[in-house]
Design a protein that fits this description.
Blueprint: E1 3-6, H1 14-22, H2 26-34, E2 38-40, E3 57-60, E4 78-82, E5 86-91, H3 108-115, E6 139-145, H4 148-159, E7 164-172, E8 179-183, E9 186-188, E10 196-198, E11 206-215, E12 218-225, H5 232-239, E13 263-271, E14 278-282, H6 287-296
Parallel strand pairs: 6-13
Antiparallel strand pairs: 1-3, 2-3, 4-5, 5-6, 7-12, 7-13, 8-11, 9-10, 11-12, 13-14
Length: 302
Amino acid sequence: MSEVFTCDKANVRLDVFLAEKTDKTRSAVLKSIEEGRVLLNGALPTKAGVKLSLGDVVSADIVEARPISASPQDIPIDILYEDNDIVVVNKPQGMVTHPASGSPDGTLVNALLYKVSDLSGINGEIRPGIVHRLDKDTSGVLVVAKNDRAHLSLSEQISTKKALRYYYAIVVGNIAAEQGRIDKPIARSKRDRKQMAISEDGRNAVTLYRVIERVKGYTLVECELLTGRTHQIRVHMKSIGHPVLGDPVYGKPAAIAPNGQLLHAHKLVLYHPVTGEKMCFEAPVNEVFSAALSALGFKSEI
C-alpha cells in the first residue's frame, strides 16, 4: 500500500528521504524505485539520487525483500562440459539463471548446487559461479566458474571481448542489410524501471548481426555480443524496427512463440582459465524455436 510524503527540506536525495521517512533499508528503497513503485510528483523519478525540492510529493510502496538464499534442488539440466574449473550448460527456455525476488528457487543455480560439488564464491551465495546471465526466456550456452581463479579469468575474457558469444534470433520484418553493427547505449527505462531502453546517458552497448535467411515477414539472424548489457539484443533489435519474435516486453507475444522471445545462445568461444586452450561450445535450438522455423518456412539448417 502506497504512502504519501511531502518533502520538508530541500536538496535531499530521493532515496535518503524515503529511507528516513519509511524506516526501510536503502536497498529496499532502491529496489522499489527500480521496480516503478515510487512516484515523484506523479511521475517516475529519473534516478534514485535525484534531489528533492521543498513541497515535492513522493508516493511510495516499499516492502522489505525477503532474504533470498540458493539451496540445492534436483532439477534436470543439460551439462555440455565439466572439468575441475568450469561447467558449461545448455540453459532451457523458461529457467531463471539465479534466485531473485519473484524467482526464489527452481533456477539454474539451484540445479547446479545439486549437481556440482563446488562453485566459485565470488558472486556470493545467490549467484555462485555465475559469470554471465541469460534472460529467463532465452535458451542456450552458459559457462559457470567452479573456483575463483576460473571466475576471474572468464570475467576478464568477457569484458575484453576475448570470449565470443553468438545468438540465433527470429526477428519481425525483413532486414534490408546483409549485416550490421548496432552501437547504441542502453540504460534502465525512465518510463518503466523493469525495462531497458536506448539512452544517451546509458552504458556502451554493441551488437553485430548478420542475416542468415529471410522469409515473408521474418528474418533469421545471428547476433554477436560485443558487450553484455541487460536485454541487449532484444533492445537493440527493437531499436532498428525488428523486435525479436515473441518478445512480450520489447515486441509483442506471438502464438508461434508461446514461451517468450525466440532468442537462443547457440555458441560460446572461450579460453580455458587454467590451460589456456581455446574451447568452443554449441547447443542446438530448442524444440519451440525449431518448430517456429519450420512453420514460418525457413530452410536454413541451424
